[in-house]
């Protein structure tokens, strides 16, 4: 009887347990919230606001640098602006 019990549990878990786990997580994945058009529009608006604020900061830095030759502007990041290339 013990010789049959262990393979029976292994086969049962393989054919019932594994598909149940896989289907459970597929269902959870499909129920996950997705980004809406409204959210995407808000992100685009926030990105354009950030770009305008950065332009204003650069303008202020140029003005301060012209008035004070010893002043050092902030170090700009060397990361490429690839957001627009991903969006278009």
Describe the structure.
Keywords: Membrane, Transmembrane, Transmembrane helix. This is Envelope stress response membrane protein PspB. This protein is mostly helical and 88 residues long. The protein has 2 domains: 32 residues; 40 residues, no CATH class. It is built from 3 helices and no strands. The chain is elongated. The model has no long low-confidence stretch (mean pLDDT 84).
Anisotropy-based shape: elongated
How many strand elements?
0
Please state the average pLDDT score.
84
Distance between the termini: 66 Å
Strand content: under 5%
Run of helices and strands: HHH
- Domains, number: 2
Sheet with the most strands, sense and barrel status: none
Give keywords.
transmembrane helix; mainly alpha; transmembrane; single chain; 2 domains; Envelope stress response membrane protein PspB; 88 residues
In short:
By secondary structure, the protein is mostly helical. It is elongated and about 90 Å long.
What topology does this entry show?
Blueprint: H1 2-31, H2 37-67, H3 83-87
Protein name: Envelope stress response membrane protein PspB
InterPro entries: Phageshock_PspB (IPR009554)
Transmembrane segments: 6-26
């Amino acid at each position: 009887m013990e010789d049959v019990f262990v393979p029976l549990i292994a086969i049962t878990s393989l054919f019932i347990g594994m598909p149940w786990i896989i289907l459970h997580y597929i269902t959870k994945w499909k129920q996950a919230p997705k980004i809406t058009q409204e959210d995407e529009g808000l992100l685009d608006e926030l990105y354009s606001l950030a770009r305008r604020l950065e332009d204003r900061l650069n303008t202020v830095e140029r003005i301060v640098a012209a008035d004070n030759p010893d002043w050092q502007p902030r170090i700009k990041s060397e990361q490429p602006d690839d957001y627009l290339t991903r969006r278009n």
